[in-house]
Amino acid sequence: MNKLRSLMVDLPEDVKKLVTYGDFSEALNLIDLYMTRNIPQILKDRLTFEKDRIRRFKEDYKYSPNEALALAQENIKDFKKEELEYLKNERYADWIYVDGKVKFHKRFLQNSIRIHPNLKNRLIEPTLDNDSNILEKTIDNIIKHGEKKYFIHVKTGLKLKPEYVKEGETIRVHLPIPRNAQQIKNIKILNTSHEPKFISPVNHPQRTIYFEEVVRAEDNFTVEYSYESHIQYNVLSPDRVSKDQPTFYTEEWLPHIRFTPLLIELAKEIIEDEQNPLMKARKIYNYITENIQYSYVRQYASITNVPEYAAYNLKGDCGIQAILFITLCRIVGVPARWQSGLVVNPYYIGCHDWAEFYVEPYGWVFADPSFGGGGLRTGNKKRWNFYFGNLDPFRMISNSEFHYELYPEKNFLRQDPYDNQEGEMEYLDEPIFHNKYDVIQEIIEVSEIK
Asked: How many CA atoms lie within 13 A of 150 on its CB side?
């Protein structure tokens, strides 16, 4: 289930029409009918996956237009009905059809407030932005002094909601932990809630600590770890780029890093006649940050081709922008790969994705289109330029590949089959998805190393 090569296969036309219209009940009935017919196994796998996509759609899209309007009016001063239609049409507010009627994504309001130029100024209860302030100061210091180092100590984990606790049954839990990366040093596992059955090697592409336990009431599965984040400032010059460049990390990685006709043509139009690999990557970065509007989106497992989703819809969150950058870079021969995990600074902890690309003589350098695009969106070109080639030190890296197996492998489809930032749980006889547990992410210490 986790290899997902069936995503390369399209749906039967009648199933696709029902899903598009949001007639999910009839779509599920039709899928069951197809499963009784003599069709290839790969199409059966695709239809099975579609049933799970439908489950995720129903979880993610919950607000009718009237409910969405009421929620917006509770939080934003003088919010009008016409503004909701504007947010919908301008791609700030994500929506789909459910039974032929518009339903808004559960995070449409957070997304609109985050990226719309003035909604934040109209909040009934404004919030302080200490996170942005420390980031700006840190970027200034990195540019001025050439490096920055931080010690970071956090606690993360998962906790089953009481109604889903099956006492006496065996549960399998994977929690992400720091892996080797160019900016990560001195990784230490400090404490765990249970004795781990396995800890992935430090170079595993999606590194986890694994527990297998008999469930008790009020069980938390947690890990505490510390590490150091060392950032060196990169000053990149096209004139220094070598003529000879490597070809690793320029291949497809199916089903998502896929060289489709749309993406091949897009890559050609972006780079035009450019031959310098550094400038190719910069042109791709510029295109994404200037054209792909940041947007919280549906669960990744409900998107059958992540980079094409961004290219067709001109929107996407940090991971969607990163995987589009990686795919376009590989199409034009620039090595690129995934990094993801957490953002951890003194004021905030949460999931985040970005990219690395490789250019001789610099080696692996960073690209964070979402953070860079956020800078461009607010007129902060210093931040925009910084996140091409550089990164802030407030990161925990647990993943170096998009869509890679955990070890030990899961028995059931993952909550996120492509990435692993919060963790995964399953019973021996059924999967456990995110509506059945709470995520634990706690900052214990973030301190600068002088």
From this structure: 21
Burial of 5 (0-12, 13-18, 19+ CB in 10 A): exposed
Q: What is the dihedral of CA 310, 314, 315, 317, to 10 degrees?
A: 50
Per residue in 265-292, pLDDT (tens digit) is 999 999 999 999 999 999 999 999 999 9
Strands (E), 215-301: 220-232, 293-294
Q: Report residue 195's pLDDT band, with 50, 70 and 90 as the boundaries.
A: very high
Dist CA 199 CA 210 (whole Å): 6
The burial of 380, by beta-carbon neighbours within 10 Å (0-12 exposed, 13-18 middle, 19 or more buried), is given as middle
How much is the CA Rg of the chain, to the nearest whole Å? 22
Mean pLDDT calculated for residue range 205-225: 95
Q: What is the pTM assigned to this prediction? A: 0.96
* Residue from 335, 173, 138 nearest 246 by CA: 335
User: Is-contact 447 153, C-beta < 8 A?
Assistant: no
3-class secondary-structure state, position 293? strand
